[in-house]
Amino acid sequence: MQDQNKNTNTNVPQALPPRTTAPGRMNRAFLTVDLEEWYHLDYLKGFRCRESGVRVLPQIFDFLDMLDEEGVKVTFFCVGEIADENAGILREIVRRGHALGCHGLDHELLTNKSLEQFVDETRRAKAMIETAAGREITGYRASCFTMERDKLDATRQLGFAYDSSKIRFAQHPLYRNLDLSGFEQAEDLVYVKDDFTEYEIPTLDIMGYSIPISGGGYLRLFPFWLLRILLGIYARRHENFTIYVHPFELTDVPLPLPKGLGKATAFRCLVGRRGNLKKLRKVIRWLKKRGARFITLEADRRERGLR
Ligand SMILES: [Zn+2]
What we know:
Layout: H1 2-6, E1 28-35, H2 61-70, E2 75-78, H3 87-95, E3 99-102, H4 115-133, E4 139-140, H5 149-157, E5 162-167, E6 184-187, E7 190-193, E8 196-201, E9 204-206, E10 209-211, H6 216-221, H7 224-237, E11 241-245, H8 263-270, H9 276-289, E12 293-294, H10 297-303
Parallel strand pairs: 1-2, 1-11, 1-12, 2-3, 4-5, 5-8
Antiparallel strand pairs: 6-7, 7-8, 9-10
Helix pairs in contact: 2-9, 3-4, 4-5
Bound molecules: zinc ion (ZN).
């Protein structure tokens, strides 16, 4: 847990609970999916991608089948505005025993919204997802991890029991270090205040740079041999791991990217999509071999005696 010991921010609980596994061995693994369409990517804001009619969510069944084969249960966070058109998929996710939460109403950054707007939209998004899925939801993840403390407190008032938006990634302007003062660290990556839980998305500090090995473009960009080395370093410092992926990364359906996007951004959107599902399966097996137990965030809370 050297990463956390090196942390100098005062808004993070400093008392670290003892590690329960030997260095190099893993304890819990949380696989999470931001259930959004490809056109929700922040780079694509301002383009009219949605009108292309191309959708990636209907391709999610290959991923769901892989999870069944590996015996892995995951936590999905759905964008409210696409819940109704994907109601069948949401119900299938619930039927297969996965957890379902909310990823905002429209995937706009929380930092661009007032608290009042956030409260109104989150209430609506929760109701839309619950109607589509046919069950209550209690988890939240902010778009691009842009959670802020006043909004975190508001999610609790709105009936949410857990959030997973905290990431430490100093070099990226979008990712803030969420203020968790008043929370206690229950375990690696897990923070609790009263009966509310925050689950951190880890990064790996190497030479002063935070590498987000837990998901997004880096998971697609890095070949598995490199990921294996980085995960090995990670497992010596941490015992829990959170992975985050998106539906567009789990299929190689062609995406009609807008012409004005720029080559570097197009590369970031497209790199490593082909074969990424296979690579993810390898990561899952690597973690399992080191003792990781994949559970949903809801199941993790139940094991801690929380509702
Ligand atoms: Zn997202």
